[in-house]
Amino acid sequence: MTWMVTGGAGYIGAHVVEAFRAVGTDTVVVDNLSSGHRGFVPEDIPFIQADLNDRAALDGAFAEHPVAGVVHIAGYKYAGESVRKPLRTYRDNVTGMVALLEAMEGAGVANMVFSSSAATFGTPDSELVTEASATVPESPYGQTKLIGEWLLADQARAAGLRHTSLRYFNVVGSGTDRISDTSPHNLFPLVFDALVAGRTPRINGADYPTPDGTCVRDYIHVADLAEAHVAAARRVESGETVEPVYNLGSGAGTSVREIMDAMASVTGIDFEPEVQARRPGDPARIVADGTLAARDLGWTMRHSVQDMVASAWSARQAWEAQQEQRAQQTR
């Protein structure tokens, strides 16, 4: 049987496709390429360029392929941008998910793993976030992810959908040079852009009550995240008991200073970050407890901070070389 990966041409989705391939599971990718790249999907993987709100395309995909379940990653994923573009966020993340669930029900597909977000928590009231922590999202993005979880729960009650949702904070690194994080909003690409352009990266606040004075956050390697999606999919498909949500986190976190030090070490670009004033509302430390995911999904942090930065930098250089090669071919 085949698993459909929506958003499978994106940074995270393409890694999930790779993880499925590693365990011998066939996939079919649905992606509108609004932020993904066709080149991230291997040529031998069936690819359907379509928006989730295109029911005809979804129905056709389910009719053509023996889909056992869906890993749903597609969506408008920028928390900051979602405040400026709430209607697009709700259309892509809520209306699109409704269309997907309708198409799944029509095709008799009853398994889903939803790529949710720690943005559902908003600003947690404790340093260690568990699945039981209050969900008080502070952006349309976080709200739509929480609504997605509600949709799954309601559809499970109504139609027997088997599902689980994965919540996580900052996804970094790369599992292969073929797939790079090209988002204009994510931390690693932003820091790399600054270093390459000769600008000094900035730290917002260095006087927090943490070991080095900078904020501590959860960073997880994208390959570890992808393996967790596949483990969840296999557990859901087999009918084993799953929690409605799992946090994927380190339980310890990494400071912004540690990230910057690793950036300097890996890139060979020596720099001292510019320290600015704290940003209002930034907690000193937020990390997720991955105990339940470790128990059920085999979740573990398999990559160090150095691994995360080194793999991201290598993939970025490969991406830039590829873009330059294409540019030369069109001149």
Automatic annotation (TrEMBL):
Question: What keywords appear on the UniProt entry?
Answer: Carbohydrate metabolism, Isomerase, NAD
Recorded catalytic activity of this chain's protein = UDP-alpha-D-glucose = UDP-alpha-D-galactose
What is the enzyme's class at the highest EC level? isomerase
Instruction: Give the matching PANTHER family.
Output: UDP-ARABINOSE 4-EPIMERASE 1 (PTHR43725:SF53), UDP-GLUCOSE 4-EPIMERASE (PTHR43725)
- What name does the UniProt record give this protein? UDP-glucose 4-epimerase
Names of the cofactor(s): NAD(+)
Q: Which residues form the signal peptide?
A: none
Q: Per the database record, which ranges form the NAD-dependent epimerase/dehydratase domain? A: 4-249
Q: Which GO terms describe its molecular function?
A: UDP-glucose 4-epimerase activity
Keyword Membrane applies:
no
UniProt superkingdom: Bacteria
Question: Is NAD included in the keywords of this UniProt record?
Answer: yes
From which organism does this entry originate?
A: Citricoccus alkalitolerans
UniProt record similarity statement: Belongs to the NAD(P)-dependent epimerase/dehydratase family.
Instruction: Extract the InterPro entries matched here.
Output: Epimerase_deHydtase, NAD(P)-bd_dom_sf, UDP_G4E
Enzyme Commission numbers on file: 5.1.3.2
Biochemical pathway: Carbohydrate metabolism; galactose metabolism
What Pfam family is a match, any one?
Epimerase
